Every structure is written in structure tokens, then in C-alpha cells.
## 1
Amino acid sequence: MIPTIRCLAVFATVAFAAPLAAPLAATLAAQDAPPTSGMDVIARMRSRHAGEWYKTLTFRQTTTIRRSDGRDTVQTWYETLRYTPERGTQLRIDVAPLVNGNASISTWDSTWVIRADTLAAVRASGNPFLALIEGAYMQPVGETVRQLAPLGFDLSKLRTAAWNGQAVWIVGSTDPADTTSAQFWVEDQHLMVVRIVLSGGAGRQPLDIHLGAIVPCGKGWLATKVEMLQSGQRRQLEEYHDWRCDVTVDPRVFDPHAGKR
């Protein structure tokens, strides 16, 4: 689930311009009225699925990575996600063949790299999407806002549009011609994120992520196809298989010192 672009979160240093202290009650007031800010949208995501969204998720992922020479490399990843109030959202990715013991464990702000079943490195950057695909439905709105802050989404900016035949709220932009500023798109049917644009920074082109093929998963929803584009060219394609929600997960899966799974 998108670990290749973890490093791009470091480049997303656009100034964060959203209020942090708006009362949740005010944010959730007048639910039939259109949202007026990105925080309103996040609050609706939280409110719509409160107490129902899956707390664990497992799936097998076919990952097609476009190399710099234009060739595609196809890998199989086995992914395990969970949310707990104590640890927040955690994601483990095991890369096939599993006998090699190569994996990573990510939170929103940190990554543990495992090689040959041994902790090889700890990085002060995490998976930038965990707050939008899981945390937003489980944790307080203020915590989601805090986790999104380093990505540079301006939560004071909001507009509406259509995306693949659906109405969407676009958080982080007010200009229809703006295709490069940090923004995320939320469809209004399931309140799922269907597009994310991350500012590249330092002369890099933005990363444009499309999330589709949405299916029911437990009492929530899951995007089972993710495409990552840069300068109009696909960099990575992720296709999910055998997904299971709210399954029992051994906590040791998320212990980087636990050795072989």
C-alpha cells in the first residue's frame, strides 16, 4: 500500500493553514448543509462510519513498479493493517518471497525496515496515506488533522467537482485549474478518498494518486486499485486480492524486533 512514495512525504512542506481547535460539535452541525472546510469533510468521514469501520485488514497486493528505464517490475506484497487507540494506524508489508524475511512496518510518521527478519533501519517518515484510508474513520478529527499537517493540505480551501461520474469534495484547492497543490478528493456517496495529489517540492513533479474499484469490506469500504502517476506517467499500480476485514491479527506482526512471522 504505497510504500514506494514514503520518501515523497518529506518533500511535502507546503505551509499548513487549517485551524486545529474547531469544536467537533460545530463541525458536525447541520449535516445536510454543504461542508465549508476540509475539517468539515474529515468530520463527516468520521461521523458517517463511527463505530463501524473495520479495525483490521489483510490482503495480497500485486504491485507493478515502473523503473527509470521504462520497464515494469511486478512484485507480490502481503499487507496487514490495524488500528488501535494506543498505537493508531499501523501497516505491515511483507514482500514475496516471504522466506527472505523482507518487510516494513509503518505508522503515519515512522517506518521500520526489516531485512532477513532483522530490523535494519528506522526512518523518521511514515506512510502518508494511513490517516486518510483508516485513521480518519477511527480517531478524533483533531488527530487526523495533526497527522495530515506535514503533507501540506490547506484545509481552509474547499471546492466541489465531479470525478468518474460522482460528486466529490476537493480539500486543499479552490481553483479548477489547480492540479499541482496538495489536495485530496472525497466522494460523497461513501465518503471515501478517491484521489490524492502530493506536492513534490524541490523541483519534483506532484504525485497524483487515484483510488478506485471500491468494494464493501466489513461495515466499511475499501479501494482495491491504486494508481500513482507523475507527469502523466504511471509510476506504480497496486491491485488488491483476497481482502479480509476485521480479522484477528497477532500483535507481534507489528513488532519490528519479533523476527520471523
## 2
Amino acid sequence: MALEPGASEGNIIVLVKPTPDINKVRFDVERGRIDRSSAELEINPFDLYALELATRLREILGGRVIAVSMAPPHAEKALRDAIARGADRAILLSDKRFAGADTLATSYTLAMAIRKLGGFRLVLSGEKSVDGDTGQVGPEVAEHLNIPHASFVHRVVDVDEDSITVESDFGDGYYLVRLRFPALLSVSRPLTFRGESLEPRIPKLSDVLRSRRARIEVWSADDVPGIDFRRIGLTGSPTRVVKAFYALEEGRRPVVYKDPEAAVEEIIKVLRSRKLLR
């Protein structure tokens, strides 16, 4: 089902991925997965910029900011942080049947949840996540929803009731794009909005207290109308991790020579073996 351009009620949906502290999290090398229960989850840094942009756009476009996440149950704290940072509503998609999802299954699940929510003007996501670094979920969600999208957005030039104009940095050039609503943006950092540099806000104590009282809606697969169970979780994931391993750095192996002449001869020999000296 395609969404008609302009047929939106003004809501802004932010895709929030709770990610573990990479310095503390454990990896299941045998199954090629991150053990997300081994470390506290916090909002992916790129998604914080998407959330901040959403709150600024709400001042212009109206509507509500809705944070949507697919994660384990203990990700609820991260969604409360999203509310403390300006979201009006938070929805956690949590079900054992969602586990093991690759980017395709994840984006499909998120898109189906967005369809359940109904009218919206804009979907925002971070460019990528620090624990995956694929940059695929945002654009894939847009494709599932059949709406226009722009990635690597580092500057929002202008916005009105019907469209948003952004600049994307593709490395080899900058692209100025105007998208009619509804649309999706994957934002980078640093991020500017109408010439102003955006930084994620630090919640005030009153915001934190308000978020503790907020209701986090938890949806299972059964709560998402029309979802195809063959396309979610591990079953719906064509990507398979064949092997996972720790990339260990090899330490230095110093050699000490007391004889300077012997040291010079050995250095020359090493340089020649590596074809760095003829």
C-alpha cells in the first residue's frame, strides 16, 4: 500500500536504535551476534541528532514526535531517554520472533509498525548505528513504505507544509534535494538546520522525571496488523553471519642491537625483503 504524497497528519516518526556500550558488550562469536543483554542500552548517537531535528521541525510543522524502536525489553530505558529529549510518545517493538533480524527484516518490521501508526509527514533516522554501521535500515524502511528518501543528510535548508529541502554529503559531491511529504531522511553528524548547528539536547531534571512517569508502549508481532511472519526475525533474514571473530591488534616486537653496524645491516635486510629498498 503506497502512501499518498501530502496525505499526512503532521506526525514525525524517529527510528531509535538502542545500542550497547561497545567497550562493555560481549559478543557471541559462535552465533555471530552481539549479546545485547550484556551491557546497558543507550540511544545510538546518530539517532540523537534525528531526535533533535524532529523536535525542531515539530515547532514548524506541528504534530507529535513518535520514537519507534525494535529491541529487547530492557531497551525501555533508552526509550524513556527519548521522551526526556523531546519525544511525545515511544513505542517498543519487542518479541522473540523479531530476534536475529538483519537489516531487511528489521526495516520491514519497522515499516509495518509505521503503517499501523497511520498518517505522518516525516520519518527520521540516524545515518547508521555504531554497532552495525550498515546505513541500510532507513532507506529500506522508505522503500517498504514507497516514499521518497534522502541519506547522508548533513544540512536541512528549508521546510514548509508540503516539502523539505536538504543537502546530502555523498563524499564525491553534495546533492541538494527537495522531497514532498511524506518522506524519510537519514541524518549524519554534524547536522545543521537553517544555518544553525544542531546538537542533541541534554535533558533537564524535570524532563527526566516526566519520562519516568511516561508509558512506553510495547508491541509484539501480534500487535502489528498485516505483518508477514515469514519476513521477520531470523526467518525473514537472507543475510547470514558465516564467521565472527575479534580483530586483535598485534603488539610491537622490538629488537635491541648493541652493535650499530649490525643494526644497520639488519634494517637494510628488512627493508629489502619488503621491497622498500633496492
## 3
Amino acid sequence: MRYLTKKHLSRRTVLRGAGAAIGLPFLESMIPAGMRRASAAAAPPTRVGFIYIPHGAVMDRFTPAATGRAFELPPVLAALEPYRERFNIVSGLKLAAAYVGESSAAENHARSSKCWLTCMPDGTGPSPASVDQVAARHIGQETALPSLELALESGASIAYSTPQTPLPMEVNPRIVFERLFGDGATPEERAARERQLSSLLDAVTVEAAALKRSLPAADRQRMDRYLADIRELERRLALAADSQLPALDVPEKPNGAPPDFEQHAALMFDLLVLAWTADLTRVATFLIARELSNRVFPQSGVNEGFHNCSHHSEVPANIDRLARLNEYHTQTTIRYLLEKLATTPDGDGSLLDHSLVLYGSGMSNSNQHDHDPLPMLLAGGASGRVRSGRHIRVPDGTPAANLLLAMLSALDVPVESFADSTGVVEI
């Protein structure tokens, strides 16, 4: 029998101690007794994320041959097989705005990421912001951070508060942690805080213990898992600090990102999941790498720079190398995130049930600098608003904005159009 009480926790309850405060995950105790979960005022919110991968993809290895539900996952997405019922692949979309302007290679690449979430040429059009910021203005105002912008490489942004105002994307996981859970304004204040708090959790241990004694078993388990995740992140960040952050001067100059790509990606995705779990933010953008990045990913088995690989000159062996990089990024980014979301309890389901995550690029065939048909994957249930497990093929040339508008609709954002949209993709 489910534990019920006449009292319930506020969704805004936090643990406090020694100047620290930690938000709580969604707990059953936050639902008033007698209220059905489906209509509870404290039901889990829907989160939304946008994850960008540059240089497109080998499209015939990203796009399934069959449509509907009876499709076989192509090689680039094969690692996502355990979650095939939790996402849709959407093919046929076009980013028309990325074709507008100078035809140089650099400009073609730059527009791929700049226009991905605005779907309008640089500094033009009716859209006042990228789609993530449109969402943040409607679903992000009740959280400490209306939106969170993360990256694994500096030098670019996919989030725009206006068509000409890119938002900075943070690459340093330690700074993200401090932004979520508190920091000092100066190096001296941060040093004093670290001396005072050997651990963020140590500061709230007494209040956490008292709260746990009043919770039912299921909520105690969720609390234990959530606090353990914070503790583990602290441990990993402390290790990174010992080797990478001996002289962190100011947050505006991040220099503590682990050099190992996989470790860096895991830390940043773990921080994103924690931020969503504690309802510190509901909107996030995540840049895997910037366009024109020539970073080498030796763990993929490919020892050539990313941008160089993307210009394969239609040579089969070169295409194979780019495809291996595509597969590697699938395994280390979106698969990692889907696993974290699917295994993190949230209300009557998981974070993946209550999230909507777009993974894709503003470029398709990078050798030709094509901006259609785009590689796009949409994961998550959006709190029951999205039917997953399908390959949705729209007519060639369908504006990518149609998918973004459909996402806004699933989030109950009251807009009738977005950028160059002509309708919505049925998701």
C-alpha cells in the first residue's frame, strides 16, 4: 500500500546547511494525499534538450531504409538499440537558412550551427530567439536557471537570445557544478568556501537525515541515489581539480575541462541530469564540438582530425572513417545520456519519460556542405505527448522549423509558428 500523508513536501523544498543549499528530486511525498498522480499539481515537469554534433553524418548509415516502426537501425545508430522504443528518427528535413549568405566553406559550416535552432539567416527574420530560448521563456521561469548552455569545445554557440546575440556555452564542469550548487564571487571567496565545505553534502547532512526519516521507502531510495550522484560528481571533479585546476582564477576563463573526451562528456551529461533531477533548469543546449573542429578522437580508432574526415571526397575508405566517428559520437554522447535519463526515476516514470531531447546537426553530407536532408533524432516521451519508436520520413525539403514547432507544441508553448515553419511534424 502506498504511503500517504495529509501533509506533503513543497516542490521547492531544499536542504540547507553552512551556507549551502541543494534542491531535491521529485518525490512521491510532494504529491498531496488522495490526488491522482496524473492530475497532481506537483507532477514532474517536462524538460527539453538540444544536442548538436557538427559536420553532419554519413546519411545512408544514419537513416533507416524502412519507415514506421518496422525499421532496422543503421550502423551509426546501432548502439541505441536498447532504446529504440524511446526515440524517433526524423528524415527529410531541410535547414534552408544555412544556404543563405557567402558560399565559403567556413561560412557554410558556421551557419550550420548558428541556424540550427533559429532556422533563420543571420540576424534576420521574425524569430526573436533560438527555439530553446523560446521554450525557456515559457517553461523555464520557475527554475533557478531558465536555461543551461553546455559544450565540450569552446568557440561557438547554438543558443541565441536574439538573432544576433549568442549565449556563452560553458565547457568547464567544475564551473557548471558551482553554478548549479553555489560558488564564491572571487577566488578568495571560493577558496574560503572550499575550506569550509569539504563536501557540499557534508553541509546538509543533518537536515538530509532528518528529512529522510520522514519519507516513505521509495522516496528514501530516490534521495539516496540523488545524493550519491552528487557525491560521485564531487569526487570526480575533485580529481580533475587536483590535476587540471591548480590555479582557477575566474569562472569566465574555464580551464578545468578534462583532456579526455569521454570523461569530459560523461561529467557534463551527469551535471545536466542532476540539474534536471533537482529542477534547477528545464531547458538545455549541448554542443558536442564546434563546426570546423579538427579535434582527434583516438579512442574511436580514427586518428585524423574531425573536420578533415568530414571532407571525404566520396572515397569509400574516407567515408568509412567518418562513419566510425559518427558511431563513436553516438556511443559516447546520446547513448550515454539516454541511459542516464532512462535509469533516473522521476515521478511515475523516468527522466526520459518526462524529457524531449533533439540530437542532430545543421549539415548532412559534409563533403558537399549540404543542409538537407538533416540527421535528426528525437528522444523521450515528453510526459506522454510523443509517440516513439518510429522512423518518420517527411517530404524532402520540409523546413526543420516544423520539427522545432512540434517540440514547442509538445511542451505546451503557445506559439502558432516558428521561423520558416509551414506546419508541424506529427510526433
## 4
Amino acid sequence: MTFALSETHRMVRQAAREFAEEQLAPGAVERDEQAVFPYEQIKALGGLGFMGMMVPEEWGGAGLDTVSYALAVEEISRVDASAGVIMSVNNSLVCFGINTYGTADQKERYLRDLATGRKLGAFALSEPEAGSDASNQRTAAAAAGGEYVLNGVKNWITNGSTADIVLVMAATDRTRGPKGISTFIVEKGTPGFSVARKEKKLGIRSSDTVSLSFQDCRVPLANRIGAEGEGFRFAMSTLEGGRVGIAAQALGIAQASLDASLRYARERKAFGKPIAELQAIQFKLADMATTIEAARMLTLQAAWLKDQGRSFGQAASMAKLYASKTAVQAALDAIQIHGGYGYVQEYLVERYLRDAKITEIYEGTSEIQRVVIARSLLKEEHPD
């Protein structure tokens, strides 16, 4: 990585930090406890340009780069990881997908509202039998005149019940496997499209995660993104960028864990002195800070490679793998440093652990990231 943060990068990071501390921090605990979606805060994020950060200005976006986006997601997630993933899905998956692969008409009809926060998007790939094996799509889309008729179920869909627009992957020809999958834009309120179930989750509780049902759901031909059979390629390409966002979310959780640990170690006294003076605590803090900084460099490198138009899939998988592992360990260490107080809801660190774990699972499990990394390594050609 051969770049330094620009003045724009620093300004974006500071703006995101101030928003998180002023607008998200109040009520974050209550929203988590009650599983309440942060409607007003997400609208405000959109008004500031944070919901379409990489979308060109001509389509209502901020026209910023991926590095700016990663910095912003980290700051938002440091205070409220639920808001971080809502923001990440809308930016990395939905806005990116339509901006990169959509037609001018699709951009005019959907992208502008998504980028400005007037509408929210969701990305529907996972199914009961198609999680890590994403090519095993059971949701079907049959052509019928100028429409497609969708039937099937999607699950684990972030923003699923609050989204106005959902990008849905469905099989248009199951005999062709991955090459028989297509992508469709489905609007909220379309007959046959409904929320089947809202999940009760361990963490990121103020972000909605649901199952979606499609029963003879009719979608116009104009709402297909790309040609028939390009849906799997669309999904995999889009998820590469999404992994940068989730790595940044994990970073935010890890940094919050370190921040809380530093505060507590300075304040808490044992054996007549602050526990920050105990070497056992100092070693934990040092290890936390070191791994977080390493994860940050991996994440920013992946973002930078994407901005340079270079191959970044391996880097994104490395960033997500390492940052998510770092988030879980940092939260565990934070709880250990807090002792019994870390195990109760009065302190925030128990939420950090609950929020951290999902970063090792969604948008590609840690095991899948290792597969991606290994395959990339094995494809590399080295001179004799």
C-alpha cells in the first residue's frame, strides 16, 4: 500500500465520528435492547451523503472513494455496529450493484433515492439451502411475456423488512447451475412479495434480519440487472466490495473494545493502584492495539486496491478474515479486563462481543474467506 490519508479522508472520518457520537450514541443501548431500527439516524446519514458514498454525484451520491467509505463505516460501527451494517449493505451491495451493472433507466429510477437515503436497499442472495453454497439457488424466476414470475424464499436478509428496494438473485435456468442465475430489482409492495419472518438475534439487534417470501411475484423485464445468467457473477463481484465494508465494521467494534478497555484500566483500581499499571493488563492492551492496527492496514489496502481498479478480491477476503477475528478477540479481551462488570449490560463491552461474532459469518464465513484466499494463492504464477 503506497498511500497516505488525504485531507478529504480525514474530513470524512471526522464527520462520521462526530455523527456517531452525537446522533448514534444516544439511544444505542435502548435500540439494541428493544431491537428498534434506527430510522431517523439512517435518514440523517443519507442526508449527509453516507448512504451512497461511492455513487457518482450525477446520481445523487457523494462521489467519494472506497477508502473514505471504509473509514466512515469504521467510525459509525465504533458506536453502533447495527447502523454500520445497514450503511454497509446499502453502499457496498445495493448502490454498488446498480451503479456498476444497472442501466441508465434503473439508475434514474432507483439509484438516486438509494444514494441520498430517501430509500433503503437490501441484497437477497442467501436461502435455506444456499448459504456458503450460493450457487444452489432454489428461488426461481420464470419469464412470462414482459415479466418474470418469482417464487421462493430468501433468508438472513439484512434490511429486509425496512428496505424499499431488494436485489434478488433467482434461477432462470437451474440446468445451467451458476450460469443460470439472474438478478432482479424488486420493489416493496409488489404483490406476492412479503416478509416471512424476523429473526431474534444475538447481536446487531437494531438491524433487521428477515426471511423474504416470493409467491407468484411479478417483476417487469426492465427490472432485471444485466443479461440472463449473469446474476451469480454479479453477486460474487458485489460481495467482494461488501467484504471491505464488513471488515471496516469489525474494525469499529474492535476499536470500541480497546477504547472501553483503556478507559476502564485507567479508572479501575486493584491492590491500591489503577489496573493499567499491571503488566498483565498492559500486555492485553498492547496486543489489542497491534492486531487492530494490522487489521486496519489490511482493510485500507483492500479499499485502496479497489480504488486503483486493481484486483482486490484476495485482499478483501484477507481483511474480512483478519478484522472479524480481531473484533471477536478484542471484545473477549475487553470483557476480561472489565472482569465481572464486562459480563453485565451496565457496561457496553458485552454488546461488542455479541455484535462482533456475526462479522465472522455474514457476507462469507471465515471458512469461505480462507477458501477464496487459498484459491487465489494457488492461481498465482511464480517464476522458476
